[in-house]
């Protein structure tokens, strides 16, 4: 039973963790685009907002 509880707690934590990141993504993407337009960040061909979120 402890193994099941541990698995459910891990699953619940993952759901909360991913929900937090998905909630933050539009705001981070908007700010990254503003910084690229201002010239503070370089214009690159890969998604900077997602990389910033994944790296913390």
Q: Over the alpha carbons, how many angstroms does the gyration radius reach?
A: 16 Å
Alpha-beta content class: mainly alpha
Question: What global shape is seen?
Answer: rod-shaped
Considering DSSP H and I runs of 4 or more, what fraction of the residues is helical? over 70%
Number of helices: 2
How far the N terminus sits from the C terminus, by CA atoms, comes to 34 Å
Q: How many beta-strand segments?
A: 0
Q: Note the main sheet.
A: none
* Poorly predicted spans: none
Average per-residue pLDDT, rounded, comes to 92
What assembly state would you assign to the polypeptide chains in this entry? single chain
SSE order, as H and E? Answer: HH
Strand content: under 5%
Topology:
Blueprint lengths: L1 H37 L9 H8 L1
General description of the model:
The protein is mainly alpha-helical and 56 residues long. It has a domain at 22-56. It contains two helices and no strands. Helix 1 (2-38) packs across helix 2 (48-55). It is rod-shaped.
Keywords:
56 residues, mainly alpha, rod-shaped
Quick summary:
With 56 residues, the protein is mainly α.
């Amino acid at each position: 039973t402890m193994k099941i509880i541990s698995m459910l707690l891990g699953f619940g934590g993952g759901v909360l963790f991913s929900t937090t990141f998905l909630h933050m993504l539009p705001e981070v993407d908007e700010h990254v685009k503003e910084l690229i337009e201002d010239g503070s960040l370089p214009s690159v061909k890969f998604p900077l907002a997602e990389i910033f979120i994944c790296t913390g």
